[in-house]
Amino acid sequence: MHSIQLFALLLFAFRVSSTPLVFTEQAYYEEQRSIPSVSIEALEYWGRYAGAAYDDFEDWETCSKCQITKDMHQTSLNTTWSTSLPAFSRGFIGVNHQQRQVIVSFRGTTHIMDVLADTQVAQAQWPPLISGSYVHFGFLLAYMSARQTVQTAVQALMLDLPGYSLTFVGHSLGAAQTVLALVDYCQQAECDGVGLVTFGAPRIGNRLFAQYVNSLLGENVLWRVVHGSDIVPHLPQALLLFPGQYVHSDREIWVKDDRSITACERSSEGRAEEDALCSASKHMWQWSMQDHMEYPGISLLLVLFSV
Ligand SMILES: *[C@@H]1O[C@H](CO)[C@@H](O)[C@H](O)[C@H]1NC(C)=O
Known about the structure:
CATH class of the largest domain: Alpha Beta
Helix content: 25-40%
Number of helices: 10
Strand order of the largest sheet: 1-2-3-6-7-8-9-10
CATH architecture of the largest domain: 3-Layer(aba) Sandwich
Keywords: Signal
Radius of gyration: 19 Å
CATH topology of the largest domain: Rossmann fold
InterPro entries: AB_hydrolase_fold, Fungal_lipase-type, Sec_MonoDiacylglyc_Lipase
Structural class: alpha/beta
Oligomer: single chain
Protein name: Fungal lipase-type domain-containing protein
Bound molecules: 2-acetamido-2-deoxy-beta-D-glucopyranose
Order of helices and strands: HHHHEEEHEEHEHEHEEEHH
Domain Fungal lipase-type: 103-237
Signal peptide: 1-18
Largest sheet: 8 strands, mixed
């Protein structure tokens, strides 16, 4: 027997034995692709925190249009930042005492396509201690402008609030920055139980970086939410030859227009590329900027009218 066939058979046998139900291909996929804790409500919950980074922080406490006061009275602002040079970064760290959560939220930008088209699409070696890991230079520059503020505040908060969970969220360019912030945090502190929920994230770094992100989060919440045909998760395209391709980290959660959710296969399940049955099934001519603006819990108007 050919070794490939033998391997397939072994894989098949292993998968059948781990599934108590009668095996059908359809049942297998449905079982693999549903994670009980992923619901549209859970996505909306984290989406509101990602969307709230588009609010005007100055009058957060009294603002009637702001998502954060409308939906999340129990969340208080601990830290905010806003940088414009050398690169754009804006966001907040909130504390929800009721849910015992600390949330780090990076704001996105409607100019995401400019950032992606920029010459800064080149990669830089980062983080320093992980040799062979490279990330998008423009995203790194943006994150670095906020790094000191964010890391100092998060570390102080987590020391002061034992037992609180820590979740990094962000939409668009904010999604890229929040992944970098999480990796940076895990380089300096214990990050068991830390969560990551991104919305419309572009590809951030090379395969080694993606694998490193996956290894940090283990079985924890690690959701890379993609809506329909959103164009941004398909960028930067994996065309650059040096020093490496752009590769996504796990785990894609694909939300379709009818709000149905697919929990896509992880690369640790033996898959090297993105799950072909999720957003990767969309062709280039279907990619959509409008889908990038619409995510559970994130208000389209806030995104469009942010500067
Ligand atoms: C933010 O959190 C730190 C650490 O717990 C605390 O010392 C500081 O007073 C907080 N700042 C605000 C504005 O709540």
